[in-house]
Amino acid sequence: MLLAPNMVQTEILEIDPVSPQPQLIAKAASIIRSGGLVAFPTETVYGLGGDATSRQAVSKIFQAKGRPSDNPLIVHVAGRQMLDDVAPEISDKAARLIEQFWPGPLTLVLRRSTMLGPSVSAGLDTVAVRMPSAPIAFALIQAAATPIAAPSANTSGKPSPTSARHVLHDLAGKVDLILDGGDTLIGIESTVIDMTADPPVILRPGWVTAEVISSVIGLVKAADSEAQLRRSPGTRHKHYSPQARVVLIERGSPDFIQRTCKKFLEIGSVGYLGHTPAGINRPEFSEIIVGKMPQDYAASIYSSLRRLDERHPDVIVVEGIAPAGEGEAVMDRLRRAATDIITEDS
Ligand code: AMP
Ligand code: MG
């Protein structure tokens, strides 16, 4: 097949998410070691991985995603030695979080070692590090024997990928290999906590909540000011957005949801995602109903936004959930995806 310049042939390999086949892991690891890119499932979302110690591989990641160069990448490690290589100074509090939550969906911002080039951290003197628990991700990093920089494997600004199909849609021709291990378990990205601040600051809420973290290390703060968010440049950029305009209903009765959908149906087609059926049966209206627990939303918001968007609606209306516990991370992602945020009483 003839490929455009800078394009690669993207191969997809199905792999067992519980006991990944060693020969498939070895093949993916050798691509990473030779400076190529491999997309793989973690427990959160699919990552677009490259050798974190290779300037070229890191630059390929930014290019493939169209990611602004001021948005640093998360470096994934498998084992204590690799952690020490990328971030030699581990405070007591950081050590306690590692002990409690790794491998798992918690990313720690730590001081960066010189083993990593500046571009992986977008020029900051810190690095975001995580040890993933998904067997495919863990085995791949171990086999590659190098830390793997891996942001979500989507085009920058689009909903994150929770299946190999999503990755292929966004990155065909830009990634050498996609390891297809089925749908990811959690469905939204890791919690990011800045351990270089005192008290530590949660830069991005995630599955590991602030309450659970403070039960281990005491006081933590939420990033509430511009100054704090400047420490995490990526949080400023537009995120997770499908093509359609997204209207998030933060709070609203079933009647308000129906009225809102009908109002937008007067001007075009509408997709709706929520746990309350909108009670509308019209050809220009499509609906995806999910469970109302945070885990139901997390597991399906990105894939549902993508599915609704494939029907090219003018507007996607999303019903929010209570922003408590894990719901906070879900609402954080929905707010970032939204063009408009409304409540019944506003
Ligand atoms: P993604 O990999 O697309 O899930 O996004 C990674 C997130 O981690 C972004 O919100 C980044 O801003 C944040 N991040 C990565 N590295 C750092 C760092 N060194 N300091 C602060 N935030 C970071
Ligand atoms: Mg991302």
How does this structure look, described?
- By secondary structure, this protein is of the alpha/beta class.
- It has 2 domains: 11-229, DHBP synthase; 245-343, Threonylcarbamoyl-AMP synthase, C-terminal domain (Rossmann fold), CATH 3.40.50.
- The protein is 32% helix and 20% strand.
- It is built from 11 helices and 16 strands.
- It has an 11-stranded mixed β-sheet, sandwiched between helices. Strands 14-13-15-12-16 form a 5-stranded parallel β-sheet, with helices on both faces.
- It is globular and about 55 Å long.
- It starts with 10 loop residues before the first strand and ends with a strand.
- The model has no long low-confidence stretch (mean pLDDT 94).
- It binds adenosine monophosphate and magnesium ion.
- Magnesium ion (MG) binds next to loops.
Q: Quick recap of the structure?
A:
This protein is of the alpha/beta class and about 350 residues long.
Task: Tell me the structural class.
Answer: alpha/beta
Total number of beta strands = 16
Order of helices and strands: EHEEHEHHEEHEHEEEHEHEHEEHEHE
Mass-distribution shape: globular
CATH homologous superfamily descriptor of the largest domain: DHBP synthase
Bound molecules: adenosine monophosphate, magnesium ion
Task: Please give a handful of descriptors for the protein shown.
16 strands, 11-stranded mixed sheet, binds adenosine monophosphate, DHBP synthase, 32% helix, Rossmann fold, 11 helices, binds magnesium ion, 5-stranded parallel sheet
